[in-house]
Amino acid sequence: MVFHSERMNNCNRFFNLTQALVYREIASRYRRSVLGPLWALLQPLLLMVVFTLLRGVIEIPSEGVPYVIFSYSALVPWTFFTSSLTRCGPSIISNGNLIKKINMPREVFPVSAVVASFFDFIMSSIILAGMMVYYMVPVGVELLWLPVLLVITGVLAFDVGMLIASIGCFRRDIVIATPFLVQIWLFATPIIYPTSSVPDKWVWLYKINPMVGIIEGFRNVLVKGQGPNLELLTFSIIVTLCLLVFSWPIFRWLSQYFADVL
Amino acid sequence: MVDEIIVKVEQLWKRYGLPLPNPIKKLCSGLGDKGFDEWALRDISFEVRKGEMLGIIGPNGAGKSTLLKILAGVTHLTHGSLNIKERVFPMIELNAGIHPELTGRENVRLLGAIVGLSRKEIEEKIPHIEHFAELDRWFDRPVRMYSSGMLARLGFGVAVNVDAKVLLVDEVLAVGDLAFQSKCYQRLEMLRSSGATILFVSHNLRQVDRLCDRVAFFDSGQLQEIGPSEKVVQTYYERNQKIIAGRLAAGNPATTTGEDISITDVQFLDEAGKTVEAIEMFKTLTIRLHYFAYQKIEDPIFVVGVVSPEMFQITNFNTANLTARPSLEGAGYLDCTISAVHLLPGNYGIKCVIMTSQGLKLYRKENCGWFRVCSENYSHLRSNAGFVHTPVTWRFMTEEY
To answer: Which of B337, B338, B360 is closest to B261 using CA atoms?
Structure first.
């Protein structure tokens, strides 16, 4: 066992490191692009346009809300979740040189992936806010649910991201499959359609997806002026916590051997 | 406390890869996993005391870097125990964390956070790092524009400004230019005199001998010898000599052919004119160069160089000052006689150049042959003390005030 008598403030180090990595991620990504951080808003916006066009062909109910805002209000948190995942996946592999050389808490890589994606989320929320003003969506105290929903989304992304990153370090397949699986997950979540259009006999299966409660929650709070469906949300929280208890120890154990295989 | 043990390694074993139970391992190997069954380190035990500089030497793949990785806490040891009492800082190519799109200054902040400095500490150190790295205006330019030497300066600038008590140095110093290298060595000496403990991996034996108090010699994952630098470096050096000599015995390097003239063979002769492989120190050695000139060559100049196994040129002699130089055609040989060999014991190579009197190179060959200098009568002369024996006399005198 390594024993440091001069033990540093680990929390502080973790915070500094996360901050530095997030800065590296954001500053480096946009430094040589023309649109810069605008890309963060373009991504969900383009998806929304695609789905709005799709709706012109196929009948998709939107529960009495303008479809544009119906889908965009779900796409924004969803993009936060998926871009966290796709950033987490290769985060260990691409920082291999660092991990092989310096001892540091390896959790900073998935954590900073989630935080960097949160930055993108803030950017795309600006457009969402603009739309809500334009469509005169009534908002109220329900907005106080937003931080809770965001924390759950972030933690869930961290759970799944840790699993992808750590296992992917030994077998790349899982990292390669992530973008594809995320696409399937998109259609298994009420983003472009409401939960009410899911056939009754499949609802029990549908609700196993922890993102259902979260996305429903976001839409209720932002567009419908209601609180989230507490039953669904509680289930999402339980799944998130169970996953955390399961994936963190796995990540910890595997992280001892990252340097061996990178 | 001078004798305080800072690093204590006991019966350390290391094998790479996940320690999975056997059935899973078999399954994995079915999935295309290459076997990780080799022990990278076996049964290593040693101690390093406060303020000591321990050199780590050995051939490639001996486990030197693995050891440093374990000491740095980057990878997990398989068996045994490791005890480090101070903050360890690995000075192993810090450039790993550098991002090309960020400027030098931003990267220093990033590296600072990576090595565990607080923001305040980083901001305090940035002027020192900027000064040490000597990058001037490049410090605020994106790192992608840097040369590799400039990158190394940046990484090293951060590394030497971290107040670590235990430093792991892995051959990072080789990248900078000469002036920067000597600056780095000075800084290492400074850190050490301020009480830092340094573990230093290098292939430069002379440097290790000069800088380190003790040296550990690793080979195939095992600690072969640890002790005073001079003694261990000598052991390693002798083993290398054996390998080199063995390779030489396996066959004379093939001669390349020049268009006008070439050296066909090199012989080493002793006083009696007998062909030898080894010559005793202070005896006469004749280097006989057999040449073949394909056409008439007017007034050629022969240059013979003596090189060490590390390919350092030790000395060279040429025929430019010779008053009578014949024109050459066909086969012949040239004798170059060293009346007393003052080279220290070891293996030495010969390189040959033939050129015209105007300096145009006609023929050039690096490895023309090797000979060994031995010293049965002068065992006090160490082969790693340098290359050349310098006769000196000493005299102690007392003076009246």
So the answer is: B360
Distance from CA of B64 to the nearest CA of A (A): 14
Helix ranges (H only) for chain A are 10-31, 38-57, 67-88, 91-94, 96-99, 108-134, 145-170, 173-187, 203-206, 210-219, 230-255, 258-261
Q: Which residues pair with B14 in a beta bridge?
A: B41
In 10 A of CB A245, how many CB atoms?
10
The pLDDT value recorded for residue A251 is: 92
Say whether A20 and B110 touch across the interface (CB within 8 A).
yes
Greater pLDDT, A32 or A107: A107
Question: Does B109 contact A at CB distance below 8 Å?
Answer: yes
Report yes or no: B194 at the A interface, CB cutoff 8 Å. no
- How far is Cα B378 from Cα B375, in angstroms, rounded to an integer? 5
* Phi/psi-derived region of residue B342, left when phi > 0, alpha when psi is between -120 and 50, beta in every other case: alpha
Percent of chain A with pLDDT over 70: 97
pLDDT (0 to 100) of residue A247: 93
Structure tokens at B379: 């065992």
Could you tell me the pTM of the whole model? 0.74
| Tokens matching residue B374 | 């031995």
DSSP bridge partners of A133: none
Of A76-90, B36-50, B240-254, the range with the lowest mean pLDDT is B240-254
Q: What is the pLDDT of residues B362-373, one digit of tens each?
A: 888 877 888 888
Judged by a CB distance cut-off of 8 A, whether residue A11 touches chain B is no
Its sign, for the CA torsion A216, A222, A226, A228, is positive
Q: Using CA atoms in the order B205, B210, B212, B218, what is the torsion angle rounded to 10 degrees?
A: 10
pLDDT at A111 over 90: yes
Q: Which of B31, B73, B118 lies at the smallest CB-CB distance from A2?
A: B73
- Let me know: does B89 contact B166? Beta carbons within 8 Å: yes
Cα–Cα dist B266/B313, whole Å = 18
Per the listing, tokens 């390349």 go with B256
Q: What is the DSSP letter of B255?
A: P
Q: Report the side by side order of strands in the sheet with B5-15.
A: B39-49, B5-15, B79-84
Taking CA B168 as the corner, what is the angle to CA A91 and CA B203, rounded to the nearest 5 degrees?
A: 110
Task: Tell whether the model's pLDDT for residue B47 goes beyond 80.
Answer: yes
Q: Is the ipTM of this complex over 0.90?
A: no
Least confident of A236-245, B20-29, B255-264: B20-29
Residues A59, A222: Cα–Cα separation, whole Å: 23
Q: Which A residues, 18 through 57, put their C-beta within 8 Å of a C-beta on chain B?
A: 19-21, 23-24, 27-28, 31-32
- Strand-pair partners of B53: B198
